[in-house]
Design brief:
mainly alpha; single chain
């Protein structure tokens, strides 16, 4: 694409608002997806750690029972 000026790039012949809002929404969705994956991964790892710790405590208590 070739534009005569930066303003022409932003306005894109009257379609700039649509084009740039579409780019903005697409970038926002991609960032949101990455955030959700990271938060889900952290929650899953925390849950796994708690389960592992709980099992370890149960095994220790089982060994101490007469």
């Amino acid at each position: 694409m070739y534009f005569e000026s930066f303003e022409a790039l932003l306005t894109m012949g009257g379609h700039g608002l649509y084009v740039w809002s579409a780019y903005g929404i697409a970038i926002a969705v991609l960032l949101w997806n990455q955030l959700v994956v990271k938060l889900s991964k952290n929650a899953l790892l925390d849950q796994w750690r708690m389960t592992s710790k709980r099992r370890q405590i149960m095994e220790e208590n089982k060994d101490q029972t007469p």
